[in-house]
Each structure stands twice: as structure tokens, then as C-alpha cells.
Amino acid sequence: MTIFPMLAVLLPFVAAVVGLLFSRVPHRAPVTVQPPDRAAGERANTRAAWIATVPTAAAAVLAVVLAWGPGFAYFTGDAAPQPTGQTFGTIVTGAIPISLTLQADALSSVLGVLVTLVALAVQVYSAGYLADDPRYPSYSAFVSLFTSAMLLVVYSGDLLVLYVGWEIMGLCSYLLIGHWWEDRGNSRAAVKAFLVTRLGDVGFLFGIFVLGVAADSFRIADVLAAVPGMSPATLVTATMLLLSGVAGKSAQVPLHTWLPDAMAGPTPISALIHAATMVAAGIFVVARLFPAFTAAPPTLDVLAVMAALGMLGAALAALAQDDLKRVLAYSTISQLAYMAGGLAAGSDTAAVFHLLTHGAFKALLFLCAGVVIHHVGSNLMTQMGGLRRELPVTFVTMTVGFAALTGIPPASGFFSKDGVLAAMDDALSTGRLTDAAALLLYGCALATVAVTGAYAARAWLRTFFGRPRAVALPEPEPGTAHVVDVREAPRTMLVPLVLLAVPALLLGFAGEPHLDLGIAVISVVLTLLGAGAVYASWRGDPLADPARLLGPLRVPCERAFYLDAVYAALVVRPIRALAALVVTTDDKVVDGAVRGSGASARRLSGMLRLAQNGNVQLYVSGVLAGVLLIAVGAVMFT
Amino acid sequence: MMGWLPVALLAVPLIGATLLLLAPDALRAVIRTYGVVVSGVTFALSVLLAATFDYGAAARMQFEIDRPWIPGLGLRFHLGVDGISLPLVVLTALLTFLCFVYLCWRGGRSPDQLRDDRPRELVFTLLVLEVGMIGTFLALDLLLFFVFFEIVLIPMYFLIGTWGGKGRRAASIKFILYTLLGSVVMLLGLLIIWAQTGTLDIEALSASHGAGMSRSVQILAFVAIGVGLAVKTPMWPLHTWLPDAHTEAPTVGSVLLAGVLLKMGTYGFARIAIPVLPEGAVAVAPWLGAFAVVGIVYGALACLAQRDLKRLIAYSSIGHMGFVLLGFATLTPVGVNGALFANVAHGLITGLLFFLAGAIKVRHPHADMPSMGGGLLATMPRLGSVLTFASIASLGLPGLAGFWGEMLALYGAFQPANPLPRGLFLTYMVIGGLGAVLTAAYFVVMLSRVTHGRPRAARPAETPPPADDRLVRAAPDERPVVPLRPPHSVRALLGPPPSRAELTADIQGHELVAWTPLVVLILLFGLWPGLLLSLTTPPVLTLLGALS
């Protein structure tokens, strides 16, 4: 049993390696450039699907077994059993060693189940979604690698090992966003996602250094045990630095700009990486090191302000987007900000519970969106409408997803959001945060509840209701989502939807929900107000976009408040200019000095050569002059 | 007991090279197999060395041989291996072997393989180069170290100047003049040490931790030796020979230059400068760190604006070597460990990258990225995948070899050795961290330009070949003195020239064979860095004895 966490990490890793190397066996001779062989391609895709799915399923079983013991102890506060796992070796570094510890405690075992189950659902779904894609084998292998890396983050007992998984996740995200790399836009989105998260990760690494050196160990258990003895300055520095990595990975203000662009990847990837798991890793890390964060109140204040701005801003941006996936992306930023707000308010359990339910319902929403996009052949909601008759299963499941997102009882989101709001309400009175931050956080959270209702209603209405838009579908470009002719999506795509709808609907009842009735009533009323406003506007004119409710704010919201342009002007362009300057300097100054030394040596020798001109008279004059000088010198100085 | 092994490591390639001189005609027919066999035997010996190495006592010099060499001057032929030099010796033998495999595999039909362009001379040059490289890592006598250090320059000069690209003459002259200048300064430093202590034995000198030399003498000697090593490393701003040399050198030349030659500079810091002159090191370390982090950021920015793939990789070496120097500058066990790890990792990764750049250059006739047109993953998926792998390894992704060294170097800067100013090194750490982001930036931008996008027909390079940077402005006469066409007898041995399809094909046999070991090692060291770290930690602790 103690080896289970290791096995759960290794199985998808092996699947990734095997899938990358052996999906296409027998390999074609590289010299002959043949036209793509359809039968061989399908064979490779089928094989890759099995290679990817079976180990993920096995890892899911292991994760469930690991979670069986602790169960929901993390949320109920019961005494959890000892973590299951072991240390597989230590790496000497010359200072603090790195220990390869993999273990499942109450928190990580629950998350392990989330990760493996969503990954399994996405793998099965992808087998249908990308059935015709010639690069499906590498795609599924990268998803396996991602699963392995995320499990490494979840089960790791050492901060640096966690960091390894953390970065590999970022790599997989980069590779999968750029899956359709024929399009330069996708390639740019991948580059942006990688670099923005990497910028945060440098701070994250430094935060690990600070904590590790202060605790004299990188083991999480040792670090947490040493927290009470650390100075406030150390703790604030460490947690602030960690927060930069969290902001990058979990797409929080101000490093959130990569996530909407990341929707360039295939939809199942958006469901797995950019909704359910990787972006939640930041929240997980804060929860993991929560004692360190609670001991650093300034950090919590910063986190609260970031979360407050992020949740409302992203929700408003979601209300103005036309691309269905971008709506969901901004919604993800907003919901992650809820979790961050819950953490800032001092309740790690509420935040992690929202993480769980969000993982289920947002993955569900993305997978449903994938079916819709597959069906319509476009991401844009202006080209959708009336789809509830054509896609009945998707309609029902996506409705469940939206209900959970907005927090309509009894869907899971209702309970988890209530827990987060209750925590923020408590923070007003307990004084954990400064008053201003607590007030801002709670106010923004309540406003966001209403806006969430509005954008969810808008997306729901514009996709499934109204008149179907008859759009002539051009043959899709290679590398874009393929259009399926059947009425509903293939079964490999529908089964994961139905399976994910169950937790999205019912997960709220797990872990003994405790409901704050007053807050629940307020939030439901706010949701209905937001949704009602959109409904009224939509009833008035079903063809017009309800986003017109935003009035003059609409364009800024659609552009996400012009933050991308600001970053381009403040960061990207100066760096490019600096790079050009460096190249010029290198040529003209640094290398110029080298070449100049060569040239001046030649000039100097040229001058000396004047003396060696073969003119005997000159030589003799020179000798005479020298003799004269020596003679004069000898006379004068003796 | 096994003292013959280091000697054999030097003797085998040397005898191999000598035989080429003595019996050229007998060997002409088997020249391809010959190179592979000689370097293969050397590599096998290095593996034997690694296998019989006593890992329990990695801090101790093993396989020592200590004979009088020039008794009148007190010079000794002193060789030995410890945990610091062992990985580098094996790396050198491996890379040379892989270069020969790359040149000779399957009859060498590809243009960058051993063809009609003076094959015997190329084999001879590479074997002499190997003697110098391995000798540098084995030498335990200051002057012997210097001799091997210099031996390397000559074959590399010929390698660039004879088998290089269009601007080879200027590049090779710049290379040899620049590095010779550095060596002269280094020799002065070594002589200062000799004059002060009366011994040239590295073991004895490092055991005494600078006893017998005053602080000012140590600083002077450290600066002199440091400049010499820094030219070779190269450290900013002494780096400008490197981009030219790399751009013009043939593929195997670039691989060995990046994979091994640069390591000789950094190895000198670990073997000589820091342990022998600890007080000098403490005084100079803040400056060394400053130059290192400037190099990191400067190299990364220069890469961002490069058009030529080989030049980009060359500039990336400056950034990576900056991390290595930063690790040394911290003077902590963890920093030096990181530097040594990054050293080996850079050899593997950049060696692979230069192999790849060479392969791309063969297929595209140039390495100008904008005119290549992108879409490498579509036209040559495997080549594109390996390029992606190598770039990601080079940008320091955890789980691959490039990460651990740089991470440990930054960690060392977080807690530098006691006498060093901590605030300054924290600044270095932050700048280094930002440099790591920039490193990631230019690699992913490069990948985006080269491997992504729709392929379009490759165009000839848009700009005329890079700016005129000749040392000598007069038009160089690049005509070969002897016609390049081989005698008829040799041409009959060579296969038919490669067809167009073969030139544009994906990864070929010789490339696969040469690259696979590098890929495997990058993964291995990345997943289990303890393999190297457990080897280097004991000697590093011993060498830094005076400081910690």
C-alpha cells in the first residue's frame, strides 16, 4: 500500500513513454515520404487510446484505494490516519538534501481521486474527439504525462519534487495548447502560457528556497512543523514569493492573461488542464502550506485583494465574450479567485471543497462545450442556438453544469460556494484580514454571484435556445475541430459527460455539508437576479446579445480591460528592443573592441614597417643616430 | 593498481593518430571504421574507468600515476581521477565516439559525414583533439594541465579553418588568437603560484588551501588564471570568439567545442582556481558572480534577436555558462555542485542541439530561421520532436538534466559562503532567475518559428551571410591549396552521392545512433540527479575545505 502513490505516478508516466515511442510501430522507413496512410493512422490511434486509457484507469483505482481510508476527513475535520507512502531515496546536494517522498494524506488523496477520474474521463472523451487527428498518439501521451506530473504534485512530500511536477505540468500545458501548431495563433498562445506561468514559477522556486532554508529541510512535514519558529519577515517573503507562482499557475490577477488564450488547445485539454486540475494546483499548494500562509497576514491581504479583483473582473469579461470557450475560461479565472478568496478568508477546507466541485462541474461544462463546438463547427455563440433538440444529452448535462456553476441548489456548486461565502462572512468579524480587504472581498464575491448568474444564463440561452442558426459549414481546415454529422456525439464522448454530471450534481452532499441559511438565500437571490436580467433582455430580442446590458462597459469587458495591450507595451516590446540593442552592442562594442585590437595591431605594425623599407641610407642614418645618442648619453651620465 | 587506465586513455587516441601518419595508405580503405574503433576503444576504457572507480571514496584521487617528466624543472607526469573529473572524462570519450559514429555510420552518404573532404586528416585531427581534452581532465600537474589545455587549440583551429563554413578562416583565426591570449595570461597565473609555493602539484596545492601565498598574491593569481579560464568558458564580455567559431565550425566541431572545450574552462575553476587560491576566490567571487549574471541575461537577450539557429545555440551557451560561473562564485558546496552538474548537462544538451542544428543545416543549406519557413514538425516530425526535446531540456525543465545544475546554482546564490556579501548574491539570484525566464522565452520562440506553422518552400537565406566581422579586412583567399577532390582511388570507395530524397528525409540512421545516447542520458540525469551529485559532493566538500 505504501508504494501506491509511487505506482500512481509511474503508471501514466510509463504510458506516456510507451505511447510516444511505440504507438506507430512498425515505424515507416524515414527515407520514403509517403502520403498519410489512413489505415495505419487509425491503427495507431486505437493503439494509443488503449495505451493511454488503461494505465490512467489503473491509477484511478489506486487513487481511490488510497482515498478510501481518509475519506472526507479533510473536510469534516476528523482525525485522519497517518499518510500512506514512503521515501524512495534521498538526493544529496551539498546542502539540504532532496527526498523523493510520495505519500497520500487526507488532502492529497482526495485530490488524487479528482485528478485521475477527470483525466480518465478526458482520455476516453478524447478518443472520440480526436479520432481523426493524425497526431492523436502524441496528444494522448502528453495527457498521460500531464496526469503523472499532476499526481507528482499532489502526492509529493518534498517541495522541490513538487516543483518538478509543477513545471512538467506547465510543459504539458504548453505542448497541448500548441497541439494544432499549424496555426501560428495557437503557437503564440502556447508560448504565452508557458512564459507567463514560468515567470511566476521563478518566484515560486525562490519561495521554496526561503522556506526550505528557514526550516533546514525541503520536506513539507518538516517545513510545516518549523513554521511557528520562523520570523514574520521570512514567512511573508516566502509566502509572497510562493504566491507569484500560484498566481501564474492558477491564472490569478495579474498573471491570468494566458488562460483565455490557452483555449486555443483542443477542448478536452481545456477541460482537464485549464479547468479542473492544473490551474487548481496553485490553490492546492496554498492549502498544502496553509499554516505558513495563516502565519503571514499581509500575504493573506494581498491574496484577498487579488482574488476580489480577479473574480469580479473575470466574471464581467465572461459576460461580454462571444467565444463559448473563452466564456468558460474567464469563468474559470473567476471561480479560482473564489477559492483563493476562501483561502484568504481563512478556510482552506471551503476552498478545497470548491476546488473539488469546480473540478467536476467545469470539466463537465468544457466537455459539453466540446460536443457543441464539434457539432456546430465553430466556437462562437453567434453561430449557435436552438441546440437543445439536436443535442438532448449534452443539453441536460450542460444544464447541470451551469446550475452547479451558478450555485442553484441542489447542485454541488451551491454547497461549496456557500461554504466559501460563509468563510468570507466570518472573515469580516474575526479580523484575520484587514477590514478593508475583508469588506472588498465579500462585496466582490456577492457581486460576482450575480454576474455569474448572468453570464451562465447568457451562454445557456444563446447556445441551446432560440432559433437554430443555419450556417453553411465549410470543410474545416486541417487542424481545427472536425464536424461530426451524426445527431449526437459518439458514445466515447457522451459517457464521460454523463459520468461527470453525477458528481457535478451530487458532490455537494458529500462531506457533511453545513449550510449557512442566510447566505444561501442571499446568493440564490443574487444569482436569480443576474440570470433574470439576462433572461428579460434575451426575451426582448432573442437574436441580440444580452451582453448589451453592460452598456459602455461592454468593449472594455470584451477586451478584458486591455491588460494584454498594457503588458505588450510594458514588457514584451521593451524586451524585444533590449534584445536588438544587445545584438548591436555585441557587434559594435564588445566584438568591436576585439576587432579594433586586431586592426590597431595591424596599424601599429604598419608604422613599424615604415622603418623597414629597404633603404640602406635610412638604415645607416639610423645606426649613426643611435651611436650618437649612446655616445652623448655616455658622456653626460658618467 | 589500475594506474595504467588514465595513461591508456591518452595513449589509445594518440597511437591511433600516429598510425595514421605512419601508414596512411594501409588505413585509407578502412578510414571510417578506423575512427570509430579507436574512439570506441577509448570510450570503452572510460567506461571501464567509471566501472572500477571506487564510489565510496569519490573525494580521493584514484588511478593515480606520478612520474618525473622534466626533472630539471620539477615537472611531473601526474594523472588521476576523482569524482569531479570522472564524469567529464567519460563525457569527452562519449561525445568523441558519438561524433565518429555520426561521421562514419553506414558508409557516410550524407554531406556532413566523412566524405571526400580529406577524411584521413579529419580523423587525425579529432583523435589529437581527444588526447588534449581527456588529458586536461586527467592532469594533476599545473604545467601538464596547461600543456593539454593548449594542445586542444591546434586541432580545433584546423577543424574550424579546414572543414568550416564560408567565413571559416576569420572565425578560426579569431578563435585561436583570442584563446591563446587567454592562455598566456593563465600561464602567468600558474607561474605566480609556482614561484610562491615551489610546487606545481595540484593535489598538494589544493590540500594546503593556499598556504604560503599572501592574500594579494592569491588575488593576482586568481585574476590571471580566471581570465584565462574565462576566455575558454566563455564569460561575458570575453565571449565574442564563440558565436563565430560555432557558426562556422562543422557539426562535429561545434559539438565538441560546446560539449567539451567550454567545460575545460569551468573545470579549471573547480580544479585549480578555487581550491588552490581560496582567499583570492573570496575576493574575486563577487565580480565573478556579477559577470556571470550579466552573461546570463545578455546571452538570453542576444538569443532573442538571432536569426541563425547555430548562432542562437552558441549564444545560449554563454547564458548557460553564466549559471555555471554563478555556481562557482557562490563558493558553497551546493553552488559548486550545481555548477559541475550544469557543466555536464550542458555538454550533453548543447552537444545534442548542435547535432540537430547541423542536421537542419544539411537539409536546408543554411540555418537562417526566418527563411526556413517553419513547419519542421510537419516536414520532418522526428527531427522536430528531438529539437523540441533538446530545447526544452536546455531551457531547464525539471525532470531533464538542464534543471538541476541551474537550480542548485541559484540555491547556492541564495546562501553564499560566509565571507561573501549575501545581499549582493541575492540580487544575482533574482537576476539569474529572470535570465532563466528569458532563456525559456528564446527557446520557445525559436521552437515556434522553426517547428510550428505551415511549411512553405524553403527560400535561400534572405540576408547575405552575417555581417562582415573579419579580423583582416583584405579579401581572404579561401581556395584550398590542394584540390578538395580526392584521388580517384578514394572516390571509388565512396558510395554514390546522396539523392535529393535522402537529403530532405527525416532522422537518418547515423543521426539516430549518435543522438539516442544523449537523449537517454539527459533523461537519466534529469530524473535521478543523485547519480552525478553523489559523485561530486565528496570532492567538492574536500576542495572547499578552507571555506566551509
Automatic annotation (TrEMBL), chain A:
Membrane topology: Multi-pass membrane protein
UniProt subcellular location: Endomembrane system; Membrane
Gene Ontology CC: one annotated term: membrane
A Pfam family this chain is assigned to: Proton_antipo_M
Principal location listed in the UniProt entry: membrane
A single MF term (Gene Ontology): NADH dehydrogenase activity
Protein name, per record: NADH-quinone oxidoreductase subunit L
Membrane-spanning parts: 47-75, 110-131, 138-155, 161-181, 193-215, 227-248, 269-290, 302-320, 327-345, 351-373, 393-416, 436-457, 493-511, 517-538, 616-637
NADH:quinone oxidoreductase/Mrp antiporter transmembrane domain location: 156-424
Lineage: Bacteria, Bacillati, Actinomycetota, Actinomycetes, Streptosporangiales
InterPro entries: NADHpl_OxRdtase_5_subgr, ND/Mrp_TM, NU5C-like, Proton_antipo_N
A GO biological process held by the record: ATP synthesis coupled electron transport
Keywords carried by this UniProt record: Membrane, Transmembrane, Transmembrane helix
Domain NADH-Ubiquinone oxidoreductase (complex I) chain 5 N-terminal: 93-139
Organism in which the protein naturally occurs: Nonomuraea aridisoli
